[in-house]
Structures are given as C-alpha cells and as structure tokens.
Specification:
By secondary structure, this protein is of the alpha/beta class. The chain is built from eleven helices and nine strands.
C-alpha cells in the first residue's frame, strides 16, 4: 500500500512535468523522436492527457454523458455524439486494457468522428472496471469482489444494459461495432440473449474478433504454461491488493516511456502480443497511445483467455480461476 502511494505521487509529478515542460510530444517519424525538441517534424498535441468527453467537444463542439447501472450493480459511463435525423445509431465498444478514448484518439481521423461525419448517432460506452466505469452500488475498487468478472459478465450484463439504454433513447436498432475482447463479449451477449440481440441489434461488426484460440501464434500463448501457478499468483495479487492490471507502477512506467526517444520499441512490444504489424502504427500518435494505454482491467479476463487457449478450441463459459474473496 505504501509503495502504491509513493508510485502514485511519482506518477503525478511525472505527468505534470511532461504536460507542462515538454515542448513537443508528437513526431511524424520515429527517428524524429530522438530530436523531439528541435526537429521541424515534431509538434505539440494538446490532446495528450485529455479524456474522451473533452476531446469530443474540441472536435465536434458538444457531447452527452450518461450513467447506467447493470443488473449486478456496476455503474457504467456512456458518451454520446448525437445526430439529428441520423442515418443510423452506432455503438463503438472498446477492446481490453483501454476504454472509449481509443475511438477518439487520432484527432479528425478517429473512427468516432468519421462515422459521425457520415451521419451516424455515435455512442461510446465504457465497460466495468475501466477508467470511466469504476463505480458500483455496493462495492468499491478496493474490494476484491468488484474485480471478480471476465468478458462473460461484460457480455451478459454490461452489453444488455448498454444496448437496452441506447435503444430506449434512440428508438432505433443498433449497429454494434466492437474490437478484440469486446467481440468476444458481443458473441456472449448474442449467444445468451439471442432474442434481445435480434430485436435490438441491426448488425454486429467485429474487428480483430477473438473467439477460438486454438491457432494463436502470438508469444502471449506461452503465458498459458504458468496455469499451474495461477492460484499462487492470484493469492499474491490478493495480498498486495493488485486486483486490476493497471496500477501506480504501471502508470509510472507508462509515463517514463513518454520521456524515452525509442518509440519504435513500443510498437514492437505491442505487436509481439497483438500481432506483428508495427508498420501499421502511425508514429505521430504513438505517444498519445502510450499516455492512454494500457489502462485497467480485471486479471480474471486474462485467466479466462488462458482457459480458452488451453481448451483446444472450445468457447467456454466460465473461467476456472476466481478471484479470492
């Protein structure tokens, strides 16, 4: 606890220093980050530490924010970019280790802004445990039980609440766009609530869908061999109160990474776990990505994916490893 407090203070001062005294924080090429303060290809991006609603208002001029409560008590935050007489209603559901910031994090090229400009009413939910959805009617983030969920509960409870609310507000069937882990949760929602999905969702669009993990090639698959030690690891996380992936240590490391010039290393590290595509990263947005990613998620999500991989191609409902109460 004392270590977390110290790291939180260090993280705060690093962020203040970076945001106030770093003249430039974005460059058009990776090599330019070595000369960030002198290169003509580097500039200051004012959205560096800004959050979803503020970025929306800067680009669009207005936004709406709603809070909804799931059947099991989690309070979720939804951001909306409304449209008069829209072509359709679209939900953009973020992947794991991030939140709705991912849909507005590339300035005017952000998918949320592009779809809004095409005439869609845009909704940006944040599932349980993320930066904007860390409240519960009875629990706090300091309670182990708060973090006792995986993508199963996100699909079963979060998506029902989100989709029902958006449909109630708009009166329209929804285009549900998801990425990575949220595609897993959307499959759970549509499988366990098929009638509601049929009545409320016009189409599911899944980007980088994750379901059967039999043919995973990423080095992350080797973490599955630590399964015999999961109970011990889980106990250690419980003792140290590290119920979530994000922590003051992770926040401090993330901010220190912003100070380092070798940004290409960040793209390599991400690609090792998410697919080898470093050439698809835009150097101009790598620092912005680091400042907002990775964010919090429950360790149980990781446990559940380990189970999926070890199952040999099955899409299983419940993880074997639970958070210790």
């Amino acid at each position: 606890m004392l270590l977390n407090l110290i790291l939180s203070v260090v993280s705060f001062f690093i962020q203040e220093t970076v945001s106030k005294y770093l003249p430039n924080n974005s460059c058009k090429n990776y090599i330019d980050y070595y000369f960030i303060n002198t290169s003509k290809n580097c500039y200051y991006n004012s959205e560096f530490f800004e959050q979803t609603a503020k970025i929306i208002e800067k680009h669009i001029g207005f936004s709406e924010t709603y809070n909804v409560t799931t059947e099991d008590g989690y309070i979720l935050t939804l951001f909306r970019i409304p449209r008069q007489r829209p072509k359709g209603v679209a939900i953009l559901q973020h992947p794991v280790t991030t939140d709705s910031i991912v849909w507005v994090g590339q300035s005017n090229e952000s998918l949320a802004f592009l779809l809004w400009s095409f005439g869609y009413d845009i909704w940006l939910p944040n599932h349980r445990g993320t930066y904007f959805s860390r409240k519960h009617v009875n629990l706090t983030t300091s309670d182990a039980k708060f973090w006792d969920f995986s993508f199963h509960e996100i699909g079963l409870f979060d998506y029902k609440t989100i989709i029902d609310f958006v449909k109630m507000k708009t009166g329209s069937k929804i285009v549900f766009i998801s990425h990575s882990m949220s595609t897993t949760a959307s499959l759970i929602y549509s499988s366990l609530r098929p009638k509601e999905a049929k009545d409320s969702v016009k189409v599911f669009i899944s980007m980088s869908p994750v379901c059967y993990l039999k043919h995973v090639r990423s080095p992350v698959k080797y973490l599955a061999y630590f399964t015999p030690y999961l109970k011990m690891i889980n106990t250690l996380l419980h003792i140290t109160h590290l119920y979530e992936y994000d922590s003051p240590l992770m926040q401090t490391l993330r901010l220190l990474m912003l100070e380092l010039p070798f940004k290409y290393l960040a793209t390599v590290m991400i690609s090792l776990f998410q697919g080898w595509t470093p050439q698809e990263f835009d150097p101009a947005f790598i620092n912005l990505s680091i400042s907002h990613h990775p964010r919090s998620y429950s360790w149980k999500i990781f446990y559940h994916y380990v189970q999926q991989y070890l199952s040999g191609g099955r899409f299983q409902m419940t993880p074997n490893c639970y958070m210790i109460n």
